């Protein structure tokens, strides 16, 4: 049923949006591609899993711990991979390579801790409940994912556009030098940005870990590729563009798997990306107003 697949696609797209927002947030403020974002996502999934299985925490509390730890890991990634290079005015390409190195370190640690095994949540960690609504089959987990993603995305947008901290982030995104002349400390803003990015990645990691009941040290790489597609298609640095592009991506993926073939899913997604960029090289929201963007002009 088309409507059922549409709902499934929007749910998948909402998780892509949550993951990609952290990715595009860092790009919008610092103009760098943080390729360690997928590894932070993976680390958050591991923290959430071990908080449940080792520490015996209830899932909501484990989720909060994972988000907090993910945010701190994001700050550490900035300190290790980007901050020293910023002080030396190093080329952006070097920062990309540096983030790749940090990603490999995080994955190596997770590989060692997990002994390269696919880890799973204990049965019953999240109640398996399904609802029949107008002939559609929707699980409690899907409803929870959509509600949680909507809450987190709304909170992020409110933080960016309705708080003094958000104004500082947007000011630094436009010009760090000008913002510093106005009393804004760019280093503090960078730390806040990486904390938010890491927290969003970790939240997505726990959600995906629960949804598929699978946590693995390589789980971040496919999501990083999807996030790259979302960020480019939505418009580099565009928050609203990332959300729209992520929902479209999830929708196309779900319909392709349902009515064509799962093997064609990636080919169709990247073909659409190629075609879209030929028409709009800046992405769907590449010419959006500065008010709704976290990007240098």
Descriptive notes:
Mean pLDDT is 86; it is low at 288-293. Helices cover 73% and strands 3% of the residues. The protein is mainly alpha-helical and 297 residues long. α5 (140-162) packs antiparallel against α8. It has one domain. Its main location: membrane. It is a multi-pass membrane protein. One of its GO terms (cellular component) is plasma membrane.
Please sum up the structure shown:
This protein has one domain.
Secondary-structure map:
Layout: H1 2-30, H2 37-53, H3 59-87, H4 92-114, E1 130-133, E2 136-139, H5 140-162, H6 164-174, H7 176-181, H8 186-212, H9 220-234, H10 239-259, H11 265-279
Antiparallel strand pairs: 1-2
Helix pairs in contact: 1-5, 1-8, 1-9, 1-10, 2-3, 2-4, 2-8, 2-9, 3-4, 3-8, 5-6, 5-8, 6-8, 9-10, 10-11
List keywords for this structure.
297 residues; mainly alpha; 11 helices; globular
Tally the structural domains.
1
Q: How big a fraction of the residues is strand? A: under 5%
Low-pLDDT ranges: 288-293
Topology pattern, helix = H, strand = E? HHHHEEHHHHHHH
Principal-axes geometry comes out as globular
Structure class = mainly alpha
User: Gap between N and C termini, in Å?
Assistant: 44 Å
Number of strands: 2
Q: What's the Cα radius of gyration?
A: 19 Å
| Integer average pLDDT | 86
Helix content: over 70%
Report the major sheet. Answer: 2 strands, antiparallel
GO molecular function, one term: transmembrane transporter activity
Organism: Blastochloris viridis
Family: Belongs to the binding-protein-dependent transport system permease family. LivHM subfamily.
Protein name: High-affinity branched-chain amino acid transport system permease protein LivH
């Amino acid at each position: 049923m088309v409507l059922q697949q549409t709902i499934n696609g929007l749910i998948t797209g909402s998780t892509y949006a949550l993951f990609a927002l952290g990715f595009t947030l860092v790009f919008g403020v610092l103009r760098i591609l943080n390729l360690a974002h997928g590894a932070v996502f993976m680390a958050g999934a591991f923290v959430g899993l071990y908080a449940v299985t080792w520490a015996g925490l209830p899932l909501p509390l484990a989720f909060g711990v994972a988000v907090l730890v993910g945010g701190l890991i994001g700050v550490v990634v900035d300190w290790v991979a980007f901050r020293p290079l910023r002080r030396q005015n190093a080329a952006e390409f070097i920062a990309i390579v540096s983030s790749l190195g940090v990603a490999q370190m995080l994955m190596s640690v997770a590989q060692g801790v997990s002994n390269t095994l696919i880890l799973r949540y204990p049965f019953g960690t999240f109640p398996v409940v399904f609802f029949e609504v107008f002939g559609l089959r929707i699980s409690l987990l899907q409803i929870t994912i959509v509600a949680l993603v909507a809450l987190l995305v709304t909170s992020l947008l409110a933080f960016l556009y309705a708080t003094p901290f958000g104004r500082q982030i947007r000011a630094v995104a436009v010009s760090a030098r000008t913002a510093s002349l106005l009393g804004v400390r760019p280093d503090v803003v960078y730390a806040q940005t990486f904390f938010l990015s890491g927290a969003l990645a970790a939240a997505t990691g726990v959600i995906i870990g629960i949804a598929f009941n699978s946590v693995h040290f390589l789980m971040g790489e496919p999501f990083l590729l999807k996030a790259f597609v979302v960020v480019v298609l939505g418009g580099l640095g565009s928050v609203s563009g990332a959300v729209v592009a992520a929902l479209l991506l999830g929708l196309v993926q779900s319909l392709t798997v349902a009515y064509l073939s799962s093997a064609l899913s990636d080919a169709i997604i990247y073909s659409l990306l190629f075609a879209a960029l030929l028409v709009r090289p800046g992405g769907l929201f590449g010419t959006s107003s500065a008010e709704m963007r976290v990007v240098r002009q």
